[in-house]
Amino acid sequence: xxxxxxxxxxxLLPQGSYRVQAVEAIMRQVxxxxxxxxxxxxxxxxxxxxxxxxxxxxxxxxxxxxxxxxKGDRSITLKPEGTAGVARAFLEGKLYQEPLxxxxxxxxxxxxxxEKPQAGRLRQFHQHGIEVFGAKDASVxxxxxxxxxxxxxxxxxxxxxxxxxxxxxxLCRAAxxxxxxxxxxxxxxxLCENCRDRxxxxxxxxxxxxxxxxxxxxxxxxxxxxxxxxxxxxxxDALQGYLAALGIDYEVDSRIVRGLDYYTxxxxxLIAKLxxxxxxxxxxxxxxxxxxxxxxxxxxxxxxxxxVERLLMVQELERAAPPAPRLYDAFVCTLGRDARLKGLxxxxxxxxxxxxxxxxxxxxxLKAQFKYADKIGAPYVVVLAGDELAKGAAKLxxxxxxxxxxxxxxxxxxxxxxxxxxx
Length: 423
Fold this sequence. Notes:
By secondary structure, this protein is α+β, with helices and mostly antiparallel strands.
């Protein structure tokens, strides 16, 4: 067990870390274009934060949270999602006193849910996400969706499907709850234990249940779109108009409710259409009551979460994963102690000049050094040996063309930069 990662976790090894860095860079670039700034929150929070925000009728709170009591007898939970922690930081940092809207993003934030591990869904997973506080108009809903799609398209995801819905506000949801309860009441004995509990407290959560019996029971259930109040209906109509103005195709799907209680009005999902089936890679929506629920001033909000592991899996299936970057621009091979001392100094000079470089640290023979340089894909090898040192020069070998020339030390860095196409 000492040499095996816990179930539902995985290592990010050096050979694959560049892929995560690449999607992180895309997320940062796109968020910069949209005027979002980075936020980082603790990996654990007080348990009550998630109970009040995520909702005690959700699967996340009921089944999936990693909760423990610390040495101060406080209930602490590893965060199962990103929004609640950012909302808490927004309040604690009094960001509502700053000019609004407050637009924030986070990159590869670790989240934890105790559920059955499967492809693209681990017990420790990572999310990219954005949160916007203080923007009422549906134009920001469209912007949030556009930003998510921009990130995914730049990451190479091609066949994206956008599904949108409105789940209304507490005012219109009350009437819908009554209609849904009336529909489900005769089917109550056939629902799972969790959904029987949700029936009285939050029947909307039943629509999100993955149990087969519950999925069958909700077939033909009334849709919430028919129960929206004038404000929520107007907001949803406006969102569709903004999406059309942006040229974004979408489908209205009344079954999208998302799995967390804080959502209001707009909810959406971005689904990758793959040969192996559909895969949700991003989901989000509005949470206009969350800040008030946490004790802050009434402040509307909207955001999304995008699973990093899911995104990497889609890249592989779409054959859109970026190629591995080159490890070194040049590798320095040395023969003899004096050459090694000069090599160490030369590597430092190359790095100062912005060129990635290294030399042998394993006491290999010169022939073995060449083999190693070839294995790691170094495009150029700098050879330092006795004859060249006496002349104040090095041999520069082009590994692809197998050509070699003698270059004085003072011209070595400019020559390498020219060959590599560097300024």
